[in-house]
Design a protein that fits this description.
The chain is α+β, with helices and mostly antiparallel strands and 1428 residues long. It contains 34 helices and 58 strands. 25% of the residues lie in helices and 25% in strands. Strands 1, 28, 29, 30, 31, 32 and 33 form a seven-stranded antiparallel β-sheet that branches. Strands 6, 7, 8, 9 and 10 form a five-stranded antiparallel β-sheet that branches. A hairpin with a 5-residue loop joins strand 28 and strand 29.
Length: 1428
Amino acid sequence: MYFLTGWPRRLLCPLRSEEEPFYIQPSSQRFYFALLSETQLSIWFSRPSVLIVSYIESAKAATQFGFYQKAEWKPDDSMVAVATAKGYILLFDVLGGGDEKYLYEPVYPKGSPRVKVTPGYKEEQCAPALSLEMKKPVDLEAPITSLQSLQEDLLVCTADGYLHVLHWDGLGSNGRKAICLTTIPFSLDLQSARGGPSLDLEGVYIHCMEYCVTLDGFAVVLSDGRLGFITPLSNTITTDQLQGVWAADVNDGTCVAVNNKYRLMAFGCASGSVLVYMIDTTTGSMQLSHKLELTPKHYPDIYNKTGPVKLICWSPDYSVAMVTWECGGLSLWSVFGAQLICTLGEDFAYRSDGTKKDPLKISSMCWGAEGYHLWVLPNKQDRRRREEQQDVDMGSPPQPSLQAGILQFHFIKSALTVNPCTSNQEQVLLHGEDRLYLTCGDPTQIHSTSDAHPHTHMHPHDGSPLHQPPNPDSPLSQGLSTLLGHKHWHVVQIHSTYLESNWPIRFAAIDTAGQCMAVAGRRGFAHYSLYTRKWKLFGNITQEQNMTVTGGLAWWKDFVVVACYNFTDQQEQLRLYQRSANLDNAFASVTKLHSDTLLLNVFRDMIILFRADCSICLYSIERRNDRPNPSASVELLQEVSMSRYIPHPALVVSVTLTSVRTETGITLKAPQQACMAESIMLNLAGQLIMLQRDRSGPQLPFCPPVVLAQCVENVWTTCRSNKKKRHLLEALWLSCGEAGMKVWLPLFPRDHRKPHSFLSRRIMLPFHINIYPLAVLFEDALVLGATNETVLYDGMQGSSEPLESLFPYCTVERTSQIYLHHILRQLLVRNLGEQALMLAQSCASLPYFPHVMELMVHVVLEEEATSREPIPDPLLPTVAKFITEFPLFLQTIVHCARKTEYALWNYLFAAVGNPKDLFEECLMAQDLDTAASYLIILQNMEVPAVSRQHATLLFNTALEQGKWDLCRHMIRFLKAIGSGEMETPPPTPSTQEPSSTGGFEFFRNRSISLSQSADSITTGKFNLQKTFSMPTGASAKGRDVECAENMYIDMMLWRHARHLLEQVRLRDLGCFSAQLGFELIGWLCRERNRVARVEDFVSALKRLHKDFLWPFPVIPVGSLSSPLKNGRCRTVLSPRLLKSQSADSLLNSDMDTAPPPTAPPNHTWMDGLGQRAKDMDTASSAHSNQHSPQTHDAFLSLLTNKVEEYSIGSATDLTETSSVVDGDWMMVDENSSTLSLSQAELEHISMELANKGPHKSQVQLRYLLHVFMEAGCLEWCVVIGLILRDANVIKQVINFLNSPEVPPETVQSIQNGLLAVITWASTDCLGYKPFLNLIQPQLQQLMESTSEQAQPEAFQPTSQSTKLGGSEGPGGAVAPRAEDGRGGTTPLGLALPSLEPAVFSRPPAEDCPPEQTEEKGEEEGAYDCTLS
């Protein structure tokens, strides 16, 4: 309701004085404040907060009358009465200085638009010049304890037990009468009052008294601490007409404050609690409604040390009470006891270093206009002590300082406090004195949704879509993203021109879409649109000043509905103003009203008004578009007099039309009828009364009223309907202060069955929430609210801290809370499981539904498992059974268990089932993550053997499904069990295996290091020793003892790898190796002649095509006449190649690892290359033999008819490599850029591009090729060479087959496999024929070698380094293609790549961390391959 904001402001008095103010009393409108010090009466103005006039008593008069003690204003602000210590009442006339006399006037710069346009129009900003004149004093001859103004009378209580009634005007002897307290009969209730006084009042006087208008009586605290209520039995106060009731069992009362709107009396007690009483209407006795007291749970240090209650102040709108104690501190409570703020705890009470602050002691306080400020006078001694301390610190003599009297606390409050209109119930709207706070989302989001509908009409004036009439079935909810997207408020500053003349803001309202706000101050109103970010004010200021809003504001579609009083016609009116038109009465639709309007509300196309004669009026509104400006016509439907039920019109807090019904129509009513106005909800002083329409009769009669609930502060209901969520949308939501919330929920028969006759159609369910509710999101099952947060500023500390720094800086935060679990639980408690199930199923799609389920289990578990008494009918089994109806049952239970302490697990699993069974259910449902959570529970509840057995099951399943994260956790878990580290499992082992870093988590962060210096490149000697070392896995790092557990894990990993290889799942094998740090090369070496064989080359090739999404090659139509095959092209190319080669014999050494100098330093140049014709392929064998060196260190090959993709050496992170060979790039560029391709060549190239697979697949295949080469699995190398169509690979492998170390069955297998592929290609896949023809010489060599003696070339995987040149480096293609979308500026002429340099670089670094392939973009280059 009310929230503290910022720091308190300190007001300094301009008069130098030794006296300090100790009492403050506001005038009836709270524009003026009377301050008392010992001999001084000062009048302050509210805005600006300045001193107007001060009356200082002479020393002689001060000795005669005594010091000032209390003050009271006459209701019309024309007089002030002051009570003095010696029993005198001093009366002062407050004289205005005429219309034109002001103390302060605003001065505007020349040319400012703010000029007075209306003669006699007063700027409210100016403080009026007033003077004080003392009249004749009245001597009451006894100390005065209390003053109370009552219309034309002033009631004064004195310590001799008398109650004096003085007239404000006629203060002669006839103008006063005294009533002795002992003559007033007091009883416990009015019924037993006939027997005379039942309370002995000898020597007792009234210590404190306050008049309650709506109860027509006085709440009193007697001097012996008893509480009473005195009521006059007739209109005049005479002795024999007074009757008193007293409250039993209380005798420590200290002070009292009455709430006129809710008919409550708040009595402060010496114990520190506040007792709130109401009067029972039947017996007239005082009944305790509720208490306001600090709880030991929230304030363990201070709850019983506050001292007696000193003061209680109700806010001007009576929605909150401020309480302070003798020991200091402030606390704010809602009318029915919800605590909003307390300064005795948290940052208010402690500094950031943990030391305790002294609470601020308060001598007097009162609320300012509309409750935006609380004026507080700190205790004299308190302040003196602080200032003396300050003076001691400063080391200076005390000076007569400025009178540092007043602290002003600033508040913002909910719009519902004064204007409980329901045009938008889903958004929180708060208003401070000069700004609005909204929770709505950004209007740009609404624009984007409206752009999607082409039929949305944009209004020409303000560019915002006209409000469409809401479709009854379409939810108007703004959605969670806009309402809950962040913690910040949308703050709208109220227009300063409007504020200046119309402060304070009294009403505020927001429209259904949350995009338009209207505010009304003292006169007129203004509205704001979030679409345009502009305010609209009255163009004619006379029109603004001629109306004042009385009954509130509301929005209906794009109209502002205003209930106002017109000063010129002296008449109440109902007006509707169109939002997009100018704010002018000419565009308003005006309806005259017969009585003052107190409240206004809108429901669909109806307006409901509550008037001062206790009647309710219903109007229908209709939009009319017949004029140039749209208008609305209003028609009276019905008037209902409520005077029989309402004792006083001021007691009605809110009036609402709703579609809520009780029994008669719920089952018969079709959902579209659910939106009809069915009943009126009236909040009468906290009692919620429902008047239901009587459908049996004609027109709109109402059934007799029914009381639905007590202690109601706010009501929310909606007119939307949603067949799926009828429970939530047809419910009625109530906020009930300290009792939390209540929901009046409809109960529906399931599947249209006939309802049970005994089953009620609605049920009232209470539930507690931790926030103060300000709005309800109906479909989303959320309550929105706000809460005070504090920020400490240490810079202000020290012994000389000013009063304000005692307080932290206050902010207001948005909060929200789920309530669904409370309702489901309440339904289950009442054996309404079927209704709970229907409700839960309707909300199962909410994002936090799993959290709701967890909360429900958790709350019930905590209550029942920690209960000291045995529970006769436990709810947990019911809740468990309820949750099994939902698919997230398993994860709900395990999440709840893991957030609960171990001691409660047995109780939980006794209700929900054995964790072993639940674990197996997770495995069957393939929910491995949840199964892993159950494993942790099993580890704590079962012996290690059971944990290991279940962990193994889960590990195998996770391996099979490729859940690598889970696999890593399972390895750690199994090791922890094995090594006995049950309590603290070791951190996840490092999985950075060198052998696994390959194409799957490829070298993202490494550059290919150039181990050769510049001079070694120039010399042409390039002997790189390959050191083949078995990579060491994580399981081998830091391991002191080879324990059986590690062997057990390795066995499972080997088994899985074998399984993948048998099924020809190479891609999965690569992922498995990379993710789990599996020592793939070492394992393949061991399995080289076992499982790492290829049984069927053709099926393996097909499987690779499928797994790597690699297209089968197709034959280009013009391949036979391709220009790339004719000799002309070849002769043009060869001399250039040879020239460039001779220029630097080592051009091919590491050249492809350096970027072209023109490339930007990132991967984008690869994008171009990847899209471009990668027209570099292996040369025909004849050409290779002709030009390449005869060692196997490098292959230099010329392009023939195949387009080749980048092989392993092309590029990884070229940006990080050395630029030693930039010159080589330039050389290639110079020598080959003059060639251009004909149209036919381009066609051929694009055809070849169609035969390439994804770039990522290519990188992965190259990496696997490297792994199989390292491990010596030559059959797999052949298969991968075939799919990549890399002749060098095939040639390399066939050369190796001559080695004596290669078993003859491998040679035979490769020969048979290749023959099978040739056979398959000639029948099923002709696209492979050109490549197979290209490697024909190698095949021939293979056939011959099988019949000859093997050549003595050693195959030494650990020492000899033989490089496979499968790469054509990017140097061959520097100019991007013209067709390439990224390089559209280059000319069509392409450099024909001429050269395929061999790759000389290291194998993948042994220490590079594996990275996720999935994250690698298409920019990743290919990489180096080292072949043993």
